[in-house]
Write a structure and sequence with these properties.
With 261 residues, the protein is of the alpha/beta class. The chain has a single domain, classed as TIM Barrel (Alpha-Beta Barrel), CATH 3.20.20. The chain is 36% helix and 16% strand. The protein contains eight helices and eight strands, in the order βαβαβαβαβαββαβαα. Strands 1-2-3-4-5-6-7-8 form an eight-stranded parallel sheet. Helix 7 crosses helix 8. The two termini are 14 Å apart.
């Protein structure tokens, strides 16, 4: 079995053929799914899907690009839902910083405050974090350590292959591997993958984004986790079955709510 630990099934791009998407996943033994929280506007759809399907779970959080949604979000209310397994996706993303140096510093500060707030909430409700890091490895790592985020652990979603983050494996963090691993220009991730402790590996799609080869340019979907598992199998010299069993066990260890269903 494969667990897709990060897929935006609440995205409008799945609405018209949702059941077909799920059927294709099931045919390839992709049997459990976690919808990360990115913006409060999608939470109701995520919860609706979770309540209709026993094998779908969700997280509550605000993506660093959508911080206007943070104010007024009742984290504790959503975190108390029996299908809520994590806080996030939250984190730091400097990729789109623009404007003057002062503008960039203000945006970094805004992201930092939101990230720290969500880490503290995760510790309060005792749920792991789903963490988004892009072009902000050093600052993100320092914040996680300063806030004692290892108390709840979490996953570095779409792990960016930065060696600096590898030591977080010792702090209770896992590494989400998705379609990027299959890209021809993913040499850094290909090289760093064997350095990640096997008991810290997870599989994800980030669908509808980051579609693996040979489907790049199309909408991503959970069935394509099989392509990620196959590439991991090749690089780690384990069978696909071993990769699937390993990553599913890891997912259930981190997201303890999954084992209830």
């Amino acid at each position: 079995m494969i667990i897709d630990t990060h897929v935006h099934l609440d995205d409008e791009r799945y609405r018209e053929d949702f059941e077909e998407v799920m059927a294709r996943a099931k045919a390839l033994d992709v049997n459990e799914f976690i919808i990360p929280g990115a913006h409060p506007s999608t939470l109701n759809r995520a919860i609706e899907l979770c309540e209709e399907h026993e094998n779908i779970f969700f997280a509550v959080g605000v993506h660093p690009y959508d911080l206007e949604g943070l104010d007024g979000l009742d984290f504790e209310h959503y975190a108390s839902h029996p299908k809520c397994v994590a806080i996030g996706e939250c984190g730091m993303d400097y990729f789109r910083l623009e404007g003057s140096d002062e503008d960039k510093l203000l945006e970094k500060k805004r992201q930092e405050e939101a990230f720290r707030a969500q880490i503290r909430m995760a510790k309060k409700v005792k749920k792991p974090l789903i963490i988004h890091i892009r072009d902000a490895s050093h600052d993100s790592k320092m914040i996680l350590l300063e806030e004692g985020a290892g108390e709840v652990g979490g996953v570095l979603h779409c792990y960016n292959a930065d060696d600096e983050l590898l030591s977080l494996a010792n702090e209770g963090f896992y590494f989400g591997i998705g379609g990027v691993l299959t890209f021809s220009n993913a040499k850094k991730l290909v090289n760093v993958l064997p350095k990640i402790p096997k008991e810290k590996l997870l599989i994800e799609t980030d669908g509808p984004y980051l579609t693996p080869h040979p489907h790049r340019g199309q909408r991503n979907e959970p069935a394509y986790t099989k392509l990620v598992a196959q590439k991991m199998s090749e690089l780690l010299e384990l069978s696909v079955d071993e990769i699937e069993a390993l990553t599913s066990t890891n997912a259930k260890r981190l997201f303890t709510g999954l084992t209830k269903y």
